[in-house]
Amino acid sequence: MRFDINSGSRISSAGDAYAETKKVYRKLQPQDFAAIVIVLGVLPVAFLFEITYVFSFFFEFLSDTWFFKVAPLAYCGLNVYLNLYKIVKVGPNGNASDLPSVQKPGYKFCHSCNVNSPPRAHHCPVCETCVMRRDHHCSFGAVCIGHFNQRYFVAAIFNLMVVASIIAWYNFELVLMKIPVRPVDYWFFMFPQVAVAFRFITIYQFSMLMLFASSFAVVLFTAYLISAQVFCIYRGQTRVEYLLGIHAYNLGTMENIKQALGRRWPLIFISPFISSPLESDGITFRTVDTEPQQTKYL
């Protein structure tokens, strides 16, 4: 059950709900569907495999030490999914509904949405709507990252990188345990298919190498995502604004962080339910050389 944005009336019939669900699924792109399967299916199964099988080589299963090692990982992993939930639920535009019908100074008209769009607002061809302070389209949630949900995205990828880094380390230790290699044999890590084809390693050892490679790939991917966010936030930009060469909102490092992640930004990494009020309402933004002005609406 939900409220229709335009009429304010409740949509409660099963037929309306089914129609809305079909509309959402029609908008899903192949890359969105694949990413959602990975996040909701592959990653949880991989995590369970790691803490039950891989960790058993280092700690007795269900022992006090095992719980001590697994608990922080489980907490960070839970934070990933709680933040993902908030990314989708809050959305980039928060509770905003309709944009103003009057075109204000600095606004531009979006011919795709047929709405007046502020300077920092940009249209997403996947979501088919304008997004406040749009950063990018996140396939893992099939939603754009923008003004109101960027903090949850940053917290999610940070927690994911913590989990992936620790798991990758244990996988690497397991590889060294199962494949006693000399320095001359490190090419196994680069070309495991060749190594197993010529029987330098067994199928089991090859699977251990693939396990490490997969976890390390997640580390590299999350490192890239975090680096991109840090780079743009430091410069007071979104990814879109970086590509367009817009520098009007660079207010200094600490102020830029507050603009993107809120006043209590250090706490966002602990839980998505800790409040971190944003400096802007999503419509008015301060610029380098002016007082707060109307610069954005999506």
Explain how this protein is built.
This protein is mainly alpha-helical. It has one domain (11-294). Helices cover 51% and strands 9% of the residues. It contains 9 helices and 10 strands. The protein has helices spanning 14-27, 30-54, 64-90, 150-178, 187-190, 192-197, 203-234, 239-244, 253-261, and strands spanning 2-3, 10-11, 108-110, 115-117, 122-124, 129-131, 136-138, 143-145, 284-285, 293-294. The strands form 5 sheets. The protein has a two-stranded antiparallel sheet. Helix 3 packs antiparallel against helix 4 and helix 4 (150-178) runs antiparallel to helix 7. The longest helix is centred in the C-terminal third of the chain and has 32 residues, at 203-234. The chain is elongated. 31% of the residues are buried. Mean pLDDT is 85; it is low at 1-26 and 293-298.
